[in-house]
Amino acid sequence: MGVDLLNIARTGVLASQSQLGVTSNNITNVNTEGYHRQVAQQSALLPQQIGGNFYGTGTYVSDVKRIYNEFASRELRLGQSTLSHAETSHTKLTELDALFSQIGKAVPQGLNDLFSDLGNLVDQPDDLGIRGGVLNSAGQLANAINQIQSGLDGQMQYTNDQIEGVTKRINEISTELAHLNGELLKTGEDNMQLLDEQDRLLKELSGYVQINVIPQEGGVKSVMLGGSAMLVSGQEVMTVSLQDGDPFPQEPKLAVEVGGNPVAIDGTKVGGELGALFQYRDETLLPSMHEIGQLALGVADAFNEMQKQGLDLNGEVGSNIFNDINDPVASFGRVGAVSDNAGTAALSVEITDTAALNGTQYELSFTAPSTYELKDSRTGNVQNLTLSGTTLTGGDGFIINIDSGALADGDEFIIRPTAGAASGLKVEMTDPKGIAAGTGVSADENNAGDVEVQITSIDNRGAANFPVTGSELTFEINTATNQYQVYDADGNAVGGPTAYTPPSISAFGFTFEVTANGATTESFTFDLSIKPGDNSNALQMAKLNEAKLMNGGKSSFADVYETTKQNVGHKTKSAEVSMEAAEAVYLQAQARVESTSGVNLDEEAANLMRFQQSYQAAARIMTVSQQIFDSLITSAR
């Protein structure tokens, strides 16, 4: 028995052929997404003993392996999740920044135009054309605020649609992964095509949410959504769903259905594209809406209150220019009751002081028998409210009315004082004569400012001693005794002292309200004659441009808008920096995976030549073996 050259050559040819096949497959899949480089492991056959010596018997391909590094792949998935989160955040914030910069520029322009026209009104208070211009500018400002709110509503709808689309794709991928797990249980982890497809799907899924992958036997992998919920367990799939927002249905929440029951998940914590969408919606878009609503309330309230301080061209107390801040349209959506409340209470929110509003939302909770806690969602500050009759007081510029029903222990409500204001803002006044450019009351220069008066109605201009120019009346009001003394233009007493029931005083054909801070005596002079050239109240309206009437006396109207715009701009810039950093980390992780599992064409080309030469050499051995065999046969004849 001798060395079997022909068989050795055959094994060499077959091994080289296998190596060429693996190398060729690597080369042709160089652009296949998710493909991992394969390597054929070649081993020597067992030797045979001849005459006390051991001679080799050839070679064989013992295994074909998929080059895979679990640690590098995990880092790549994490990098993909972080990058997708950063890219989505930057894209959404860029859209919002463009909305404020383009459509939103009409808001500060509208404010400028309105105050410019008010300046003209100060110069010519009886000009109906200028008065019409003021109303027109007020309408344009309201329209600008309506438009920015409409744009924000569009962003809300688009973002919700994106959330729905991503959620649907997550479920599709989860189903595919569960199916692959089933196939791998049948074929084992030697099926490298299935493993590559599994890895590709895991990488795609990590772009939508941050995942934890749990390897199991046979190549099977279970997947968790972050560390909070199982998405895929073997061949079982847990469906991700969107539930109507509670208490606001238009803000859907994320849930994972376990055993047919939805388990709520905080969408802002899931990472990836989905987490970025929830964060953008809940932490940027909604606060921007609330702040624009705050601006709308501030503008409407300030001008309407100024109207009440003056007289129009008809000699009447000024009526509202804008719709009332507490009318049903403006107050829509201010309260939401959590669905599992046991009580039957229906609540409404009434704005009492726009200066105290801060453009945030609150959580109201009731603990029996009489504890009402209001938590600021932005700062976390908690304040206790006081129940007076059916009204809860103590909020930041608002009160809460219990319109019907009763609260039960543990009931919760979401309070959004500025919700709906921007979309509901409109100009009610149609008659230019209704602008209250003049005023009918002036405070004595010696007043300390502890008492304020506001004319509420002109009841009878024909009443005796009705105050007109030259026949003004001065009211000396004592808030300690709730009495007033009236003097004519010459300083003579006109009856009295007279008692009144706070807050209203009605006398000499008109009515006004008194607001006092403590017990004191102050004087006010009334002249309610129709004075077309009077611009005193228009002058005060014009000063609203620079007045710090918002955020507790810290901000003007323009400041509120610019602050919101700047906050969006800062977040956009920050998101850009985060995106660049995430991209660098992702590229490093990708390079690490490529260096291990990727196909290097130069290396494969060298292997192709090497295995081609080994194939040719083995074939040459077969030729030599054949020649030796022929020579042996010839010599034997």
Automatic annotation (TrEMBL):
Domain Flagellar basal-body/hook protein C-terminal: 595-633
Subcellular location field: Bacterial flagellum; Secreted
Flagellar basal body rod protein N-terminal domain: residues covered: 6-35
Keywords: Bacterial flagellum, Cell projection, Cilium, Flagellum, Secreted
Pfam families assigned: Flg_bb_rod, Flg_bbr_C, FlgK_D1
Domain spans labelled Flagellar hook-associated protein FlgK helical: 93-322
UniProt entry tagged with the keyword Secreted: yes
Protein name: Flagellar hook-associated protein 1
Species this chain originates from: Shewanella submarina
Lineage: Bacteria, Pseudomonadati, Pseudomonadota, Gammaproteobacteria, Alteromonadales
Name of the coding gene: flgK
